[in-house]
Fold DUF402 domain-containing protein.
Amino acid sequence: MTREARGPKEGDFITIKSYKHDGSLHRTWRDTMVLKTSENALIGVNDHTLVTEDDGRRWVTREPAIVYFHKHYWFNIVAMIRDNGVSYYCNLASPYVLDKEALKYIDYDLDVKVFPDGEKRLLDVDEYEAFSQRWHYGEETDRILKANVLTLVDWINHHKGPFSQAYVDLWYQRYQELLRRSH
């Protein structure tokens, strides 16, 4: 059986689960549509996707968002397509794993938000410090995460990958084609 036959295909829906370092479930997204899978990456879209928090609260995403996960980078990227432009929410997180149940990763608290005007903000530094001590992330994890923040900022500054308007347009257009095909 080929690798492609085992994994999700374009147009399939998957669940995404984020965990905390101690193994506890943090957040679940149901029915993320897969737009592309490759050996190292998965691109999908959330659009009115049901999200369940660890405390049981549930909410639905408001706007279409292109999601990008990679097996070698310690971050994932959510490009939220809004009327005033694209906003990005980037989670510092372990590289993803994909099994029959879901795409899974460990969320490491730190987030980078990018606004439509290009302004960047590093979020949840206090949360990162607190959880790092509570769960003993260790020097190696801390070093890897800080290096990946630098990589992420470089991508943002140079409009690489998900941070280019052409990328967002391409994948949003592909999503709309798949939606039309399924109706």
